[in-house]
Amino acid sequence: xxxxxxxxxxxxxxxxxxxxxxxxxxxxxxxxxxxxxxxxxxxxxxxxxxxxxxxxxxxxxxxxxxxxxxxxxxxxxxxxxxxxxxxxxxxxxxxxxxxxxxxxxxxxxxxxxxxxxxxxxxxxxxxxxxxxxxxxxxxxxxxxxxxxxxxxxxxxxxxxxxxxxxxxxxxxxxxxxxxxxxxxxxxxxxxxxxxxxxxxxxxxxxxxxxxxxxxxxxxxxxxxxxxxxxxxxxxxxxxxxxxxxxxxxxxxxxxxxxxxxxxxxxxxxxxxxxxxxxxxxxxxxxxxxxxxxxxxxxxxxxxxxxxxxxxxxxxxxxxxxxxxxxxxxxxxxxxxxx
Length: 338
Hints:
CATH class of the largest domain: Alpha Beta
Strand content: 5-15%
Structural class: alpha/beta
CATH architecture of the largest domain: 3-Layer(aba) Sandwich
Largest sheet: 6 strands, parallel
Helix content: 40-55%
CATH superfamily of the largest domain: TPP-binding domain
Radius of gyration: 21 Å
Number of domains: 2
């Protein structure tokens, strides 16, 4: 199902009924991508035409970041300078109605498990469950922005590390405060990085792991606990993702082009087991040439909220938790650029 131009209420209703019918047998697995966080103000990697939404986007590869020489140090300066400015934007972002609709599907127990390619933590913040239960139901396939770690395994909360960077880089702290004061919002990618066009970052001070230094291992490199381009997903994460497909009867994909192989292979795996797959996403996707994947090309927010109401019936108003989930969320999409 594809609609050009703004969808009509009738088209939203038809799509919602299809999603509700698909999910009604329960035991569905949901997998999400950057598209679900756009309404929270976080720019997706790709636009509706399949191009990178940020034409200037040049990802830093894992091998570049980990290089122990001067070149690697320069990449880390660029990486942490951009992340320093971008973090405040992602940290202040709030879950949008799509996050809450998916949390409602978990609450209804029709889609108890969720895999996300996003690293912003917004699914967890929308969850009605305890942290322990949320973690058991949710898998962050590509890691999280909320933790910094070194290669020896020491970890630090991202917010605490932000304070470390502020103390080491007072000029950058002043620049960040000025952006706040003037309301400027540098273009931020889903990984928390920003476009530093015209900004010099060669003076940015990058700290080493203090715990490693105290243990007699100076110079240990720090990185966010996210999977970089060229970096492998940990075996335990990979195995859990396949296990979640095994434990589910159907797969609903939301807001993803499936450009990364780590996500695409899960779809292939589900299809090999003859499990039905539906994709709710705007624009081209990697599965467009696969006829077994049913595609609904409409905005996820309206479709999922209505699908939840159809599945909930009278519970939508009688269940206080469900009622809250279906009426929560911000809608502050990022400004688009040509």
